[in-house]
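Sharing in case it's useful to others searching the archive later.

Someone asked me privately for the predicted structure of Protein transporter-like, so I'm posting the question and my answer publicly. Question first, with the sequence:
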Amino acid sequence: MEVEAQTSAAAAAAGDELRSLLSATLSPDKAAVDAATEGLSRIAAASDPRFPISLLAVAAADGDQGTKVAAATYLKNYTRRNIDWGLSSPELYKEFRDRLAQALLQVEPFLLRVLIEVFRQVIEKDFVKENLWPELVPQLKQVIHSSNIISPGQHPEWNTINALRVLQSVVRPFQYFLNPKVAKEPVPPQLEQIASEILVPLQVTFHHIADKVLLSRDETNLEYEQLLLITSKCMYFTVRSYMPSRVKQILPSFCKDMFRILESLDFNSQYEDGATTRLKTAKRCLIILCTLVTRHRKHADDQMAHIVNSATRISSQSIHLHKLDPLSDRIISLSFDVISRVLETGPGWRLVSPHFSSLLDSAIFPALALNGKDITEWEDDTDEYMRKNLPCELDDISGWAEDLFTARKSAINLLGVIALSKGPPVVSAASKRKKGDKSKGKGERSSIGELLVIPFLSKFPIPPQGEDVSSKAVQNYFGVLMAFGGLQDFLTEKKDLTNTIIRNRILPLYSLDPCSPYLISAANWIIGQLALCLPEAMSTNIYHSLMKALTMEDFDELSCYPVRASASGAITELIENGYAPPDWLVLLQVVMKRISVEDENESTLLFQLLGTIIESGQEKVMPHIPEIVSNIANTIMKLLPPVPDPWPQAVERGFAALVSMAQAWESSAPDENKDIEMRVWQSGQFAMAQTFSHVLQKAWLLPVEQMGLSVCSSLPPLSCVNDASILLEFIMRSITSMEETASMKVFELVAIWADIIACWDSWEEMEDQGIFNTIKEAVNFHQNFDSNGFFLKILPSRSENSSQSSVISWLSSFITRAIEAYPSATWRACSCMHTLLHTPNFSHGAEDTRMTLAVSFAQAAFSRFKSVSDSPSGIWKPLILVISSCYICYPDAIEQVLRKYDSNGYAIWASALAQISSSSFNPGLSSESEIKLAVLTLATVIEHLLALSMGGTKLLHDCCVSLMESCIHLKEVQEDGDDGDGAEDLDDDDDDEEEEDTDEDDEDYNQDSDDDDVREETEEEFLQRYAAAAGGESIEIVEDGDIDDETQDIELGSLDEMDVQQVVLSMMKIRPDLIRAQTFPDGLMERMAETFPEYEQLFHVHRQA
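And my answer, the predicted structure tokens:
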């Protein structure tokens, strides 16, 4: 008894301490908060298995709200970091799990939101993945049935809303396929059990509560509304991917209740706060209907007509959009999406076509027309106006489009789908067939765009000159322009109609005086949307109209930024689609004049346009690049924040523009024999390098110098690292003397750049490539200009987490982490490893640094290799060759590294080296440097294996065979050179001809099948395509990595000067028994003798053996 009392007292004391520490984390005193946080970390680090239970006890017990939330939050973070903490004590983990589930049924809403996240982690692991909680569903069923709303009086402590929140967390993981690579994945048994035991009975409750809510004229019952909302969410998660068998049975009843809920909506009246939950339920119902139409057609066919009627009724409420809140707007948006999805199904046209006219007149067009909310949004937030009304993501008009979110975007999408729909057959007198013609009676099927949409839009004329934005004519014509923007797919097929619309309905707007900015911005947007099918004859008129819009100044109190921004985007689209402005210089001057520090958003868009001009203009704009670079640099330096805060988007786009100009300038380098042109080009290159240096100094060096020593521990922001790296590469490549190095502060820039990338962890393929190239250029710069060994000196780091290091070590840190990032990063990192290992001048007493690099490279490469070693793949090659490079330099140290990682590590690596060097491996070694490194390493490995008395092993045999094959391959590569280029050109010509033939065949096929109905994709086909796509994601990533840089000319340094043939020949002469003891594949020794006459005697020795 005394022992139990002492234990109980100790537990109470521990609980009091925990409660006190959690309470202290809420203190306004920073010192107290830090001390409490340290105390909690100490308790957590003690690995007490009861710690999570203690946190839960504090959260669920009586006490002040702040402490309870602190306990719940700490528990959430603790379990997230220590997901396997329960493995050490399964009994305590089960106790914690049960207590957590019990607490969730009773806690207040503010705690439920936090603790439910802890519960999701448990559900994901125990119930979904491992299916180790068989009692969960029966217990949850009992709790829901006995809870306070469903069965009042039985268990008042069990809160129905809380219980349904728990159910929502249980079904939430099943909204996605658990095994997406399986084409016809069966419904998981856990979900079938939930549907059978909980969802089916819950449908009765849902219907009963819906009756109460919809028939009651009293004030809103929030608990009932929440029950409907949460149940709808549970149903959505259940059917989003799967369709449990018992859900099929209750689907008709559930759909009827959803239709009743949707019918109860009235957007003409203002909703009170309590009724917002009803809107959320309606939104969820519409999302479920979208899912049923998209994923479960055969189970929803009986409801399709009701779905159309319900969605059509809601869409007609778009006349009230000007006064609706975002949630109501989203509901109308979803109603349009439902109709779009139905139109993409087999019976869709038959069900929706009777509503086409009313939809267009009463739903779609009112959503497109300009309203007071748009005008207010233009005045208050132009970016938000453009996001909603000039969308750039409408490139793919489809019934399956997702994430449109606003009623206007969804209406535009639906209009596009309707326009592309085929109408009934139309037989004209001119097309009547002769008697007996089998095609008689089969008229052409015109699209609804021709029959209905275009005639409807033609009813609205261009507004008279001087009309105010409040006039109905302007507002309606804005809707017409929005509609044209959604008809891009339809108009692409109707060239004459497109010409007419541009000539008669778009271009005249630019001649109005004054121009309506609302209409002009929309017109610009349409031109951008239709850039692919614009009439070439009108291109010049279109371009001049856009230039007029690009230079439109603000009115007295109205910003014309959306006009200029949409014009910038449209001009970009024109140029990218092949249009060449009549005067590139004038366009450049206009863009440069508009780029300013007053409006960062506008500068951001213009920088993007400028990049397009540089890339497309080429020789037309090339002479002006140095001056443009100087002007942009001045703007960027004004926009740079004075302290190392994240850079604004305008600065990031400005850096991207500088990069495009740097790359364009380098690609324009004249031939070396053109002295005058070369001197002009070099002068421009030097001027640009100086400008880039000033920008990087302002971005990286000056902030710290200006702020003094207090921020020396802070690195500049990790913004534009890839673009800045490319500019630094340009600077280093431009340097021709030590004086230029000093004036441009290249060493200082390289040092802080290396420090920055050593901390890089935002891996993204398109964002990292410039860094790898700059690393190689930095090593080249070190060779040419670093006579004092600056790259190897120990320098202070500005990173808070790094100690002193050298430039070489910082670069090493980046590439050893990059090797794990993604496949193409592995290739690039390995290439850089060869460069860092063999190129730098390590004569400054820094040979230890080189060994450290070799060891770290080998560790990183072998670790990555082990992670992909299950089956041979292309990614093996760079990894194995990097280890080979390290091994050639320091055999003993690297062998130790390999054996430390894996006791059989050396043999694993040597065997893999033999594999990638063999003629059967694909992709095999291809460049001379790769093969040379493999031969040298194989020879060294063979010597080592013989020294270890491993003469009769399979490993030695494989190495010998690969050595012979590699020697032959190396000789062939050295002799072939570039002899195959001509043949490749001929092959390319054949491919081109074949491609042209294929294109013609495709065109003929398309013409023949234009009038055929498009066969609808079946559910089984959808699932197979889905599984193939899911399975292809990981495969595609690996393949991309295999293809990228497949042929590498790796840097070998002094190893490249070795006579490889002599090395191998000497080894064979010294060890004649080596050849005699091996059984080589048929013909291999004959090929060796033919390739190397010096080996003839050795061949005879082998044949005699």
